[in-house]
Structure to design on (418 residues):
């Protein structure tokens, strides 16, 4: 019996997606709820599972096609799983590192599958795992999969990276080809289609520049007090809460206090009206394999530093795995972007519409400053507040940054709400 595989509901106001990658080929066996195709929306990648166990029949769309919610993308023939599996020959001897020629012609023993693959020897990887393998130059055939039917998981790849056992080896023909290649610089080019996420990011950022009256105001902050507090309590904090104590928890709490003092920074323009938010939904910019995403910590003003750090850690983990949902990134009243983790000294971040402001954090470095008439070395960071000047005046922007600066330089203020 044939079962249609349809595009699921993608989230509020999202009606279409792009076919990113087929995870199964026609004729391959699929289990119930096993992902068969990856779809890319404006914000996240979504894996569509098989509604039944059976064999993947026809693929009705190609990679790169745009599909609407409810559209049929494939047909699964139910109950044909056994027929789809190749006949099992006598098991080959188990080897720790089988030679490439054997791997290409002989199915791997069922007891120790390295990764799920098709009849041609190609290994089926999820988008998140494939990105990780490519980023680190790994050979997936050398990694033992712990997922269903021996499929590689992100944890399998991370373990192989840590052990250093899966670096891609050169093919036997590579040395000869390399020797025969003419000397000189390479002028090769590669043309890659932009992902739907990257296209959306480009459109939204350009739209923000064209619509908002963007302006950036800077200040610097002495991080010494926060660094000392973190060094003093980080071990106890991690032991009690099960998460590391970072700097972002301090900045989120400081931002919530400053947003209460300067409500215009937490507001947004809708038509000819200004909408003031009496809550702080803080968007945290997180780097994902496909680009920057901004999951939201909701009602951050009512959360403890530990709760904030747990939320950020969870977002970071799921961003790398590609499992963030549309609901995770919907809304948000103010954004914090930390370019310092990549070494940025100073930047002018762009506002994330319909929000009206974004706080940019940068790297911490020792700089000479004057304290009590003496030149001393202090751990300093530049802060940047980009904002929509249609709504936020310069006085309000400076007041907001000073409030952040005061709270970070004297963390006691965070405890007494001052």
């Amino acid at each position: 019996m044939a079962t249609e595989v349809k595009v699921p509901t993608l989230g509020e106001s999202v009606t279409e997606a792009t076919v990113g990658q087929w995870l199964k080929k026609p004729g391959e066996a699929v289990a119930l709820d096993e992902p068969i195709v990856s779809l890319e929306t404006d914000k996240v990648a979504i894996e569509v599972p098989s509604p039944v166990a059976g064999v993947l029949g026809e693929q009705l769309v190609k990679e790169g096609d745009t599909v609407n919610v409810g559209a049929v993308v494939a047909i699964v023939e139910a109950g044909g799983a056994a027929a789809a599996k190749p006949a099992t020959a006598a098991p080959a001897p188990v080897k720790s590192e089988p030679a490439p020629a054997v791997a290409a012609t002989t199915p791997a023993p069922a007891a120790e599958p390295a990764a799920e693959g098709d009849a041609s020897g190609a290994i089926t990887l999820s988008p998140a795992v494939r990105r990780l393998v490519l980023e680190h130059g790994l050979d997936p055939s050398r990694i033992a999969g712990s997922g269903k039917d021996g499929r590689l998981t992100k944890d399998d790849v991370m373990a192989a990276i840590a052990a250093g056992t899966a670096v891609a080896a050169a093919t036997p023909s590579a040395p000869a080809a390399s020797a025969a290649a003419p000397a000189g610089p390479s002028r090769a080019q590669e043309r890659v289609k932009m992902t739907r996420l990257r296209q959306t990011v480009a459109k939204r950022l350009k739209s923000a520049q064209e619509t908002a009256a963007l302006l950036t105001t800077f200040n610097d902050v002495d991080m010494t007090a926060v660094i000392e507090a973190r060094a003093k309590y980080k071990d106890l904090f991690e032991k009690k809460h099960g998460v590391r104590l970072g700097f972002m928890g301090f900045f989120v709490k400081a931002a919530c206090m400053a947003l209460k003092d300067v409500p215009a920074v937490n507001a947004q323009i809708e038509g000819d009206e200004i909408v003031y938010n009496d809550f702080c939904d803080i968007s945290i910019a997180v780097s994902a394999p496909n680009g920057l995403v901004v999951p939201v910590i909701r009602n951050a003003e009512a959360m403890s530093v530990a709760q904030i750090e747990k939320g950020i850690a969870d977002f970071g983990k799921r961003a790398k795995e590609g499992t963030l949902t549309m609901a995770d990134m919907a809304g948000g009243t103010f954004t914090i972007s930390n370019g310092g983790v990549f070494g940025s000294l100073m930047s002018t971040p762009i506002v994330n519409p319909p929000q009206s402001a974004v706080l940019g954090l940068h790297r911490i470095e020792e700089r000479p400053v004057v304290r009590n008439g003496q030149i001393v070395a202090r751990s300093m960071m530049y802060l940047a507040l980009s904002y929509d000047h249609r709504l936020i005046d310069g006085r309000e922007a400076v007041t907001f940054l000073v409030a952040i600066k005061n709270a970070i330089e004297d963390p006691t203020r965070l405890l007494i709400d001052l």
